[in-house]
Design the sequence.
């Protein structure tokens, strides 16, 4: 994977933006639970009142509150409010908002910032609680008496209806301090949010007393928070979408770049590299493996980068709520990862076996189909059914096992997740009882815990995906890091003009990479323009290898090949191949039309020259049999024309090029004798001054060649014309004798 | 696989693979079944065998879902209780009721356990059911293959049948295994949640439901858009892969014609278009999740606002709102799943339809009700006015009558594609004649069971077919009850025993798929051994051998000659000796039997046979190219490669080998055989001369000199023989 990392470089900016956006996404996703909690807790439960600092308060009530504040706090609180009465300048404005203003003065909160409110909140919250507590107590005469006792006065001695707060004000400071101390002690057991929650009830009551529309306050709060939440959610969604966009661009883009480089590199490979990797493997590497990479890049950017961010973020947030419960999350994560590991270590080997079982099933089916006649002829249907059944039973039981492992895993995973939330509630409840934590925090903790666990699950999945992708990556990198063995020279020479086409082999040897022995050994010969030079030999004698050296499909290991006196390694490959018309052993066509295939040699070839080439190649007959003629479709690999037709089209293609050198690599093998003979006759006229090289196994094809080179085990064992070789070349005579009747040999 | 099935567009991954891009279902609409309802009904019919299991699965799936739906509500109670407890703790009026919370938590644990257990049980059962159905589908298809007329496979590629057995069956399996349960759980969740919501407040439920049509519209839009690009992506992936395959495959040609630039240019066009559709489809497929989350949140806020308002009206409690909100949040996922299910069902129906289609294909004509049993088979075969065509409108054999007596040799001659194997197919009843009849020992072959009929025959075909099993198993294919010794004897008759013994594990060596460990010729010998073991009265032989080395080729011919003894033989003949010695030659041309008779008859008739036979001696043209080589004599349009030739040289080589080993009798026999086949071959006479007494040798050497007056060896031999005779006299 790392070997391919340079392909991500052009996208580094996109990746950085992605990471930033992932932070935004994580932030928004972690914040969303808070907004949701606010809607429920504050908006619905607390009627939209968020804190103990009221927007406005009757002067009479404020007076009660300040009794229970120390002088500093009192000053701060009063400082934050304006007292409004009938004489105030903005009375008209306020009276609609607070109808009670008509009867009594009201303190209205100045516009202060959130920090100020947070500072005032506990002060006023406590005061509200005390006041409402006292008021509640006073409602019950028995309790009221007991309380008054504690304050040091006898309630019964007072006239009924006496305001207890007016008495409290008159209390000596020392006694009041003492009383405050005892109250404060009681509050210390309560945490801030509880005080807050209790106080907001009083605040709500005060709003009602002020004549305010409390329903509206609540609706406003919910709407306001809801909109905020939607905005945050929109932010999360937008960043997720943008991340998706960037990831898609990066993945598809880098895949495109990798694919392009791969293709370009492979295009420049010589046959030696093709032999090294095998064509099929190169195809897989350029197609499937690249697609794998694309998938992984997407996963990388959308999940792998995100998981640690949300995981760490979740941990930070969770620890912010409670530091003592981290072990619960750790436990869940450990158990889940353990589960995933166990499941995969059990099922992965089975997955591998399954693939081979599928192959086996396919194999038996293929055999059943291809051997249908034999099977029926021998009445072996039952036998084959049993054979298939064995494969089927094996496959079924293995896939059943794998599927049941999965069937077991998911409920267990659900159970662990659910168990986690139950455990958090149980442990959390005890924490709450010990005042180490609040209920709301516990719920938030639960949500963060889920996010952390999900992050770990995502990461553990990646441990399975990444190794697989890195195999693909390695396979691609192997190709990209392979340098083509055949390169153009630094300072290429040009062929002499006019180019005649004399080919000279000087002590040429060739050996495949890593092979122990030479395939060709010390080959020397000269092929002249206007002549036909033929190569004859049994399979494996090296005759095809010789001619593959001329267009530099392979590089000679020793010696040199000269064209018109110029070493082929000193010219550009393009210039070299321009001189050669090559006809491969297997007619190889590309998808398109017959015309496009013929024009592959020369894009600007005239229709006339196509017809001429087809005529010579004996292809006209079947081409013009088709209604579309040259426009007839050729499917991929030329699978819709016969072998002989392919060879003829391949020959026609080379003829269109009109090159000074023709190389026929056993190109007549699929032609019937009559066509072969007619073709050669026509060819002889057409190729007049060209150098013609023919590799063949048929003696009849080359009997009239100007020069026949007989090869055996990579060595030249005979050179000359047919008659000469019949006289003095044993190998040639043997081959000829095996093929030709006596009359022909004469 | 045939080339058609390998084009990138139609290529499907191996089983379980749903293409590299995108998961199954969600984005890929795939093909549609032609008869959705009918196919589904049929599938349900299949499922009805598992009625009980499926009912249990459904009940458990529903139960599992309900338990998980109830969960939040009960858990909410624990939170509420905890909250109340905290408040009373503050007020000093009480403590947290851990007993109550503990009870709730225990209930929860029990519920979750049950839910997981039920989900596990239903998954366990369902995977068993779907695997069982998969297994039966596969078995039915494989059995079906054996009862279908060969004709079906003329029009259906192997790849197609394979794809049904693997991909299509697998698609059905996946649907049964996952999607079926998903339909149940998603539906239950949606209904359950809806019920719970309605039980809380109908107005809020209506608001929550408002997101359903909205989500539907959005899902529809996203799927619609992305599908377009997905299809494009697949198409261009096909183009890119196709181009890569083509260019790598034709690398040499591409280079030879300096096509690099052109190829790269084309590649870049494909690659860039692929990039364009790839990122778009990837992007769009990633769109669904965040958009749906947002829509979910929209519903959430709507419910909150309405809930707050209702709470003010005292129409609803705070706890209810809290529970409601949780239900809203578990509403979107099953909806997304359900939205996708129609796609999945369509795909499944299409796959199942293909499977059913195959299973419903017409089978071979039924066996006769009262089959004839022959106690002893003589082996007389009679064709009576046989007329046959693969298609009714294209008659291949018009009116053919002939009789092969027991022990006779019938040679079928003609160019490839002339329909020589048609005769074989008719004899073995792979196809039935259109009119007329084929009789064996006087009985119409349709009066036998196919099994009995085919027992009378054995075939050795040019396309050697061996299966992935040991050599022993492959030979025993000819006769099940043969013991090891009989198998080995058959191998000896087929002259393959020695070769088998040289294999790594001898008779127990497993032949792999391409049988790359055994050459073509050796495979042919094994099929001959198989036929030897079957020991039939009537033999069908395809003589030609391809890509076989000289030695093996002679072995094969000898083995075949051995095999033909004492049987009625139908031979797709390629050898002059076979043809000349045949009791009856059927000359085929363009799918029709144009001539029949013995070699002498046919030459006398001076028709097609005479034409191809005589062409051996005719000059092809004035170009001095010489004569048609031996193979052309046999009238085979497909020109065999050099190795396929049965040349005198190959015989002589064998003779020399025998000579070297000192097997003089063998050498002599081969030389004589050579002369019989190729009367004008000098070397054979030289060998006979070498084996003979000086006196006898003179006649051979003279013959050799007649053939080749300039033969040095013949002259030397003659000189030597004359000297010897002089010495001895």
Sequence:
């Amino acid at each position: 994977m790392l070997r391919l990392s340079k392909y991500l470089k052009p996208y580094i900016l996109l990746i950085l933006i992605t990471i930033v956006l992932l932070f935004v996404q994580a932030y928004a996703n972690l914040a969303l639970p808070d907004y949701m909690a606010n809607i429920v807790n504050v908006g619905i439960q607390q009627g939209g009142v968020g804190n103990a600092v009221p927007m406005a308060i009757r002067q009479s009530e404020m007076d009660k509150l300040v009794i229970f504040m120390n002088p500093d706090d009192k000053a701060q609180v009063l400082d934050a409010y304006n007292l409004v009465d009938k004489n105030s300048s903005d009375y008209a404005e306020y009276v609609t908002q607070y109808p009670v203003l008509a009867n009594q003065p009201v303190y209205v909160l100045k516009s202060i910032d959130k920090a100020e409110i947070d500072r005032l909140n506990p002060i006023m919250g406590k005061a509200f609680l005390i006041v409402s507590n006292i008021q509640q107590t006073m409602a019950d005469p028995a309790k009221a008496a007991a309380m008054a006792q504690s304050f040091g006065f006898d309630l019964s001695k007072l006239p009924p209806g006496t305001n207890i707060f007016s008495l409290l004000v008159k209390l000596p400071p020392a006694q009041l301090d003492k009383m405050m101390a005892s109250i404060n002690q009681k509050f210390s057991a309560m945490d801030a949010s509880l005080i807050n929650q209790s106080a907001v009830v009083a605040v709500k009551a005060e709003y009602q007393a002020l004549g305010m529309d409390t329903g509206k306050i609540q609706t406003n709060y919910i709407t306001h928070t809801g909109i905020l939440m939607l905005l945050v959610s929109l932010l999360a969604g937008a960043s997720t979408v943008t991340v998706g966009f960037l990831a898609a661009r990066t993945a598809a883009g880098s895949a495109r770049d990798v694919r392009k480089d791969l293709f370009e590199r492979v295009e420049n490979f010589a046959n030696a590299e093709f032999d090294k990797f095998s064509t099929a493997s190169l195809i897989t590497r350029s197609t499937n493996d690249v697609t794998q990479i694309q998938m992984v890049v997407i996963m990388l950017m959308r999940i792998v980068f995100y998981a640690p961010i949300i995981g760490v973020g979740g941990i930070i947030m969770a620890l912010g709520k409670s530091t003592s419960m981290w072990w619960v999350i750790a436990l869940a994560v450990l158990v889940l990862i353990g589960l995933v590991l166990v499941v995969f270590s059990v099922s992965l080997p089975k997955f591998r076996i399954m693939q081979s079982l599928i192959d086996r099933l396919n194999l038996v089916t293929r055999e059943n189909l291809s051997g249908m006649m034999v099977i029926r002829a021998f009445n072996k249907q039952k036998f084959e059914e049993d054979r298939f059944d064995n494969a089927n039973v094996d496959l079924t039981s293995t896939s059943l096992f794998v599927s049941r492992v999965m069937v077991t895993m998911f409920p267990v995973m659900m159970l662990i997740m659910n168990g986690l939330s139950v455990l958090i509630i149980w442990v959390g409840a005890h924490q709450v009882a010990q005042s180490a934590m609040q209920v709301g925090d516990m719920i938030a903790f639960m949500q963060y815990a889920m996010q952390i666990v999900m992050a770990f699950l995502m990461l553990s999945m990646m441990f399975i995906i990444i190794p697989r992708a890195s195999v693909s990556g390695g396979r691609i990198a192997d190709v990209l890091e392979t340098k083509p063995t055949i390169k153009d020279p630094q300072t290429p020479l040009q062929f002499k003009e006019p180019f005649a086409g004399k080919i000279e082999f000087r002590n040429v040897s060739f050996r495949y990479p890593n092979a122990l022995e030479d395939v060709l050994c010390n080959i020397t010969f000269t092929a002249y323009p206007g002549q036909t030079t033929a190569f004859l030999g049994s399979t494996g004698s090296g005759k095809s290898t010789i001619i593959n050296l001329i267009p530099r499909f392979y590089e000679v290991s020793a010696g040199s090949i000269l064209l018109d006196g110029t070493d082929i390694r000193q010219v550009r490959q393009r210039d070299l191949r321009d001189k050669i018309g090559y006809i491969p052993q297997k007619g190889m066509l590309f998808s398109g039309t017959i015309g496009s295939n013929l024009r592959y040699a020369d894009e600007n070839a005239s229709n006339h020259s196509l017809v001429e080439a087809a005529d010579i190649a004996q292809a006209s007959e079947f081409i013009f049999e088709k209604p579309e003629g040259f426009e007839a479709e050729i499917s991929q690999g030329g699978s819709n024309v016969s072998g002989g037709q392919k060879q003829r089209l391949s020959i026609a293609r080379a003829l269109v090029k009109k090159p000074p050198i023709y190389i026929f690599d056993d190109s007549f093998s699929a032609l019937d004798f009559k066509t072969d003979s007619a073709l050669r006759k026509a060819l002889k006229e057409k190729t007049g001054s060209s150098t013609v090289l023919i590799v063949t196994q048929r003696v009849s094809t080359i009997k009239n060649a100007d020069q026949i080179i007989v090869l055996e085990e990579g060595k030249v064992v005979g050179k000359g014309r047919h008659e000469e070789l019949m006289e003095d070349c044993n190998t040639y005579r043997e081959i000829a004798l095996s093929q030709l009747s006596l009359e022909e040999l004469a | 696989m045939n080339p058609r099935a390998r084009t990138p567009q139609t290529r499907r991954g191996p089983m379980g693979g749903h293409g590299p891009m995108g998961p199954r279902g969600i984005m890929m609409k795939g093909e549609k079944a032609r008869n959705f309802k009918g196919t589904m009904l049929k599938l349900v019919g299949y499922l009805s065998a598992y009625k009980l299991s499926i009912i249990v699965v459904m009940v458990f799936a529903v139960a599992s879902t309900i338990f998980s739906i109830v969960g939040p509500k009960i858990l909410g109670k624990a939170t509420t209780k905890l909250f109340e407890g905290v408040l009373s703790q503050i007020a000093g009026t009480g403590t947290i009721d851990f007993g109550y919370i503990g009870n709730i938590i225990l209930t929860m644990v029990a519920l979750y356990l049950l839910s997981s257990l039920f989900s596990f049980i239903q998954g366990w059962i369902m995977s068993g059911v779907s695997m069982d159905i998969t297994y039966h589908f596969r078995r039915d298809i494989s059995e079906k293959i054996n009862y279908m007329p060969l004709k079906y496979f003329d029009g259906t590629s192997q790849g197609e049948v394979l794809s049904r057995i693997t991909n299509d069956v697998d698609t059905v399996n996946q649907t049964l295994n996952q999607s079926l349960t998903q339909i149940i759980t998603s539906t239950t969740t949606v209904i359950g949640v809806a019920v719970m919501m309605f039980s809380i407040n109908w107005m809020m439920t209506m608001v929550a439901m408002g997101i359903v049509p909205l989500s539907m519209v959005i899902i529809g839009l996203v799927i619609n858009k992305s599908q377009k690009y997905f299809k494009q992506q697949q198409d261009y992936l096909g183009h890119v892969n196709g181009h890569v395959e083509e260019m790598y495959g034709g690398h040499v040609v591409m280079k030879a014609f300096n096509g690099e630039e052109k190829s790269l240019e084309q590649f870049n066009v494909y690659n860039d278009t692929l990039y364009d559709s790839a990122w778009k489809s990837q992007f769009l497929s990633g769109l669904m999740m965040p958009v749906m989350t947002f829509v979910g949140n929209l519903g959430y806020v709507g419910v909150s606002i309405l809930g707050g308002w209702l709470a003010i009206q005292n129409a609803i409690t705070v706890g209810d709102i809290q529970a409601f909100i949780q239900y809203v949040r578990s509403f979107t996922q099953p909806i997304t799943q359900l939205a996708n299910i129609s796609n999945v069902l369509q795909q499944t129906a299409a796959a199942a339809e293909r499977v059913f289609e195959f299973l419903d294909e017409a089978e071979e004509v039924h066996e006769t009700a009262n089959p004839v049993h022959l106690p002893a088979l003589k082996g007389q075969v009679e064709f009576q006015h046989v007329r046959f065509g693969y298609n009714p409108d294209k008659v291949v054999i018009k009116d053919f009558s002939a009789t092969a007596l027991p022990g006779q040799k019938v040679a079928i001659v003609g160019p490839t594609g002339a329909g020589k194997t048609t005769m074989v197919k008719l004899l073995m009843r792979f196809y039935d004649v259109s009119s007329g009849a084929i009789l064996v020992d006087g009985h119409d072959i349709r009066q036998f069971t196919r099994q009995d009929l085919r027992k009378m025959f054995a075939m050795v075909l040019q396309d050697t077919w061996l299966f992935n099993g040991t050599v022993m198993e492959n030979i025993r294919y000819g006769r099940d009850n043969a013991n090891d010794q009989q198998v080995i004897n058959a191998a000896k008759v087929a002259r393959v025993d020695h070769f088998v013994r040289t294999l790594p594990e001898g008779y127990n060596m497993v032949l792999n798929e391409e049988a790359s460990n055994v050459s073509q010729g050796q495979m042919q010998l094994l099929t001959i051994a198989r036929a030897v073991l079957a020991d039939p009265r009537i033999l069908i032989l395809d003589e030609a051998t391809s890509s076989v080395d000289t030695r093996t080729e002679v072995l094969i011919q000898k083995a075949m000659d051995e095999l033909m003894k004492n049987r009625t033989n139908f031979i797709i003949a390629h050898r002059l000796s076979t043809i000349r010695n045949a009791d009856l030659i059927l000359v085929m041309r363009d799918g029709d039997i144009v001539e029949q008779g013995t070699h002498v008859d046919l030459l006398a008739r001076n028709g097609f046979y005479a034409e191809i036979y005589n062409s051996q001696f005719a000059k092809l043209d004035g170009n001095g190219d010489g004569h048609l080589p031996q193979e052309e004599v046999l009238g085979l349009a497909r020109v065999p490669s050099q190795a396929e030739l049965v040349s005198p040289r190959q015989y002589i080589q064998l003779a020399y080998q025998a000579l070297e080993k000192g097997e003089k009798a063998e050498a002599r026999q081969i030389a004589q055989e050579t002369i019989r086949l190729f009367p004008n071959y000098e070397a054979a006479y030289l060998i006979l001369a070498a084996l003979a007494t000086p006196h006898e040798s003179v006649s051979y050497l003279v013959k050799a000199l007649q053939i080749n007056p300039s033969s040095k060896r013949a002259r030397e031999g003659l000189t030597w023989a004359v000297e010897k005779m002089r010495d001895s006299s």
Summary: Chain A touches chain B through 167 residues (CB under 8 Å). Chain A is about 65% helix and 10% strand. The mean pLDDT of chain A is 83.
